[in-house]
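Appendix B.2, paired examples.
Example (i):
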Amino acid sequence: MRIVYIGCVESSYRGLKTLLDEKKEVVGVITKESSDFNADFVDLAPLAGEYQIPCKYAKNVNDTEIKEFIRECAPDVIYCFGWSQLIREEILDMPPLGVIGLHPAELPHNRGRHPLIWALALGLETTACTFFVMNAGADTGDIISQRKIKIEYTDYAKDLYDKVMDAACSQILEFTKDLENGVCIRQKQDRKAGNSWRKRGEADGTIDWRMSGRAVYNLIRALSHPYIGAQFLYKGNKMRVWKAEEVEAEQYRNIEPGKIIKFNSHNDFYVKTYDNMIHVLECDEFSAEEGEYL
């Protein structure tokens, strides 16, 4: 089964490596040379080069040059994992087995943008890794593989990212075998069911100490590595927080949110939230005093 592979992030790399390790017939790779958009960007060209697989850089996957490259590769199926642009129908219709996409959420629920970040920021306890046959919509195609993933209270973005990728690499081999054998089962999505998450902006990553301690903690772990970090302002400077813990603060119920209760270092300080405290364990370097407000 001839596979053209499209991707430009860490998950794309892991998926491609999984296929190549199992000696699957990847006949072409499409990737990006650089990306300001993806925090976990990976150029797949070096990996393709190791296996002497033809590779094209694309700014827009729907460009004529890329479409011609795909036609020349004559794929039976296209795998598109970790690519933010919607693929137009001309490409979707090229391979007989379709274009397979990945969405790390429990479709038909939680379609849309930033699924791992939203899952953590909202404090969800489960998500899923879902592969589907792409259509003209966003994350609305027939599901061919879905595996549920438990989210622990202590999971940060990298922890959840790794859980999803462990599941994804296993699923890729399973449905690739099913596609090769002509036994892949497609489950239609109910387009009226579920919801679609919106694009996040800079304001969504700003810590408001008036939020509950749990909400602040969830935001910090959602935006931790490999993402951009939750941030707060101190004397006009943006400070990013990478790690923290939620701490009970019954004795400080009369203290306003945003007040520094204790400051040992930028990697060890306590801030009052609406209902308890956040103990910051890893932050950009700065110095403050107990009693100051953030």
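Example (ii):
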Amino acid sequence: MYYGWRCRTRQNDKTKYDSVATTPACLRLLESFLESAPQLCFQLYVVFRGVDDESGGTLLFNAGVNTDSDTFSMLRWVVIFSSWVTLGLSTVMFRKIVTGNYYYKSTIPCHVLYFLWRVCETGGRVLCIALFASTFEFWVFAVLGPHFLVMFLWNVWAEEEPVMIMCYGYMMLFYMPFHSDPSRYAYFVYYVIFYTENFLLLGLWAGMTSDRDAWFYIPGIVTVIVFFILHIVMLFLYYKVAHPKAKTITYCEKWDWERVRKSLKSWSLV
């Protein structure tokens, strides 16, 4: 009885400590998005906003920095790629810490598919933002501002911790950081908003930009569409074959407004 009581006590302590450990994990995730997401958007913006000089080269904001050299071009794309990968890895590490603490141990295929899901999600998002900003500049905040406000109010309604509401609202500019139980309804609402904004940004840019003859016009549109398709495919593959609870997940379910309300209001970290 004594050792049984000790074991139970230690398990309760472990649960408490694991719960506390999620806060610094969340802060590390936020730090990654505060650093890498704006940098990725800015680097792509610089690529799309190159200004021609008299010699036909490209000057970085007319500051006399020639960006047409092979070394500079390679370095720039390395930075862009590393920022993009960093965002994906940060989401995987956060999920690994949280799910490992609370419910189950994830497998390598689970991490790989989760990583592909998230990089496709964030990649298409930052590309839409950068393309739109390259033509409309600060008008991009006319879309991101209301999105942040909606996500902020969503988290207020979900009764999140006051300190974290702003953090969650910011991260939800780029991806859905947390899951609810059941998660399908929250994902549905979020991704309807998310992709409506993405295709609004892309459509306005494609229809009104003066860069229709630029090298990135067609590739930019195609890449956003490909990211969208891959994101949806990876999302379904993850829940179908890689999620630790894949065998218990039902995919056709009657629409239940009470479950919808619970999904939108009851956040969890898995």
